Amino acid sequence: MKPSLLVAALIFLMPTCLKAQESLGVAELMNKDRPRYMAERLVIVQDPDIDTLVNRHIIANASKNGVDGWRIQIYRGGHRTANEESNKVRARFMEDFPDIRTYRTFDRPNWFKVKVGDFRTREEAAMVYFDIVKKYPEAYLIRDVIAYKNPRQ
Question: CA-CA distance, 153 to 69, in Å (whole number)?
Fold first, then answer.
């Protein structure tokens, strides 16, 4: 009984030991079958259609006049006095938070909106949102195309 149990254990454990010896790291996989002068270089072989898609994506983003990001919408009104009220809300916000940019927009058919901030991530927007919602309880986070400055420039 014991020898058959030992043989069964060896049969199950042997492939895992062999597999463990077979695994390679990233550097070994990258440099496999390459001469030494090309070691540590990454060569990508891909379908040319991928380049076409990447170029289309770049062109589409360049035409947006900004990047995808987050803003906080503090006002939305569609009634007769919404134009005046949106101006008042924007002016009051600029007094309360002078460091945060404001944007007043009109979306058809009759919505005046006041959006604030240019945040790249939802987390950035959420940190400011918790301060704003104390004075503007109807505020909420929205996705929008934001004016984003490249930090490397």
Answer: 19
Q: From start to end of the chain, where are the E strands?
A: 67-77, 102-107, 111-119, 140-146
pLDDT tens digits, 64-117 = 777 889 999 999 998 888 889 999 999 999 999 999 999 999 988 878 999 999
| CATH 3.30.70.1070 boundaries in the chain | 67-146
The DSSP 8-state label assigned to residue 100 in this structure reads: S
* φ, ψ (nearest 5 deg) of residue 23: -70, 140
Q: Is 74 exposed, middle or buried (0-12, 13-18, 19+ CB in 10 A)?
A: buried
Q: What is the CATH number of domain 67-146?
A: 3.30.70.1070
